[in-house]
Amino acid sequence: MADGEPRQSMPAQDGARLHRITLRETGESYACAGDRSLLKAMVALGRRGIPSGCHGGGCGVCKIRVLEGSVRCEAMSRSHVSVEEQATGYALACRAYPLSDVVLEVVGGMRKGLTRRYGLL
Amino acid sequence: MGVMRIGHINLRVLDMQAALRHYRDVLGMVPTDEDHKGNVYLKCWDEWDKYSVMLSPADRAGMNHVAYKVERDSDLDDIKARIRDYGREVEELAPGELPYCGRALRFKMPSGHLMYLYADKEFVGTSVGTLNPDPWPDDIRGAGAHWLDHVLLLCELNPEAGVNKVVENETFFRDVLGFRLTEQLMAGPDKSVKALAFMTVSIKPHDIAFVGGPCNGLHHCSFFLEDWGDVLRAADVMGKNRVKMDVTPQRHGITRGKTIYFFDPSGNRNETFAGLGYAAYPDMPVITWTDDQIGSAIFYHTGEIHEAFTAVYTEGY
Ligand code: FES
């Protein structure tokens, strides 16, 4: 079931097939069902590695690049992943659903402004 | 009197059906119209004008503009002159150019955010009417938000380069639009850098707020709930609908508001804000927070700001 849709108790069908997601830098891996975003599955398991932000494809902090395997992507803000980038494997982890086992690298990060030392953003 | 209150926000969304599920079923807004460009208009049950949220289909998230309502049509002429005298550009739009509104002013805030002012918007009426009304309607959905309350805009702040759009916006809103400062956060080694400005034009703790950041952006738009019980119930509604929550129910030091931060399906941050905190009469002294207490200023219970709250936002233009 996608984020933003009501919880259901029905067992998921095909989408429930688990795929292995591996973060290249750390070697860390976790299981993600085909109907769960790469980001949601990671946070739900209490794992870390991909920065977690808006979960809506709007903020860009969860940007990744798929190195092996394939994903299906829902709408992503073009400010953060252009059409060309998407064609070369870039994606937002909160909008990407695995179609196979995936090896990825983390590209995004929490933006730290120059002004952090001024106590806020 | 001039500017009276917030009127609406125009948000860009990546998936209109998902956005509609969110603003209608989770926040509890009522869709009132859709135009040929695919823009969808919604209002809260306690609002009387046609819309307070305009959703525009787009391929990037963020805010297109925010609009405030002035009391009298002639206020638009006065304010137009004041903006020009201040040395900034302003355009006047014919009735209808701003959807379902009368003539309008369009200008950029010093921070670059696009703003409109209008005096008239198509009237729809609240869901309970004005004759011997019930306190709430029977067909409330989701969180049942009462009204769009305020926006918090991210404004460029780079003291080393002499840039502080928080202060530039504050000055413009005070001198030109008649807003008053209610609370501020002072930062830096000698607490001389204004990093947050909360401003009102009513007696609410804020009708708009500005926060310093690396660039121009939309931090959140906020919807009013009556009390703490409503906030907790709203969080349940969000849990049921798998809405991504950024901050679960909590109290702000600044404004004393009771809050939840969460995201719409395109990643635009929303807030539900309960309680009026205090009455910000024009003679109320300005409240100052210092950045060594910033945790409590923002999240009074935990006294801690988590990284995503400050680093995650969408575009403000
Ligand atoms: S978490 Fe914001 S774009 Fe993925």
UniProtKB/TrEMBL annotation, chain B:
GO terms of molecular function: catechol 2,3-dioxygenase activity; ferrous iron binding
Domain VOC: 5-120, 147-275
SUPFAM superfamilies, per the entry: Glyoxalase/Bleomycin resistance protein/Dihydroxybiphenyl dioxygenase
PROSITE patterns (alphabetical): VOC
Record keywords: Aromatic hydrocarbons catabolism, Dioxygenase, Metal-binding, Oxidoreductase, Repeat
UniProt-listed InterPro entries: Catechol_2-3_dOase, Glyas_Bleomycin-R_OHBP_Dase, Glyas_Fos-R_dOase_dom, VOC_core, XylE-like_N
Membrane as UniProt keyword: no
Subunit structure: Homotetramer.
Family: Belongs to the extradiol ring-cleavage dioxygenase family.
The protein, known as: Catechol 2,3-dioxygenase
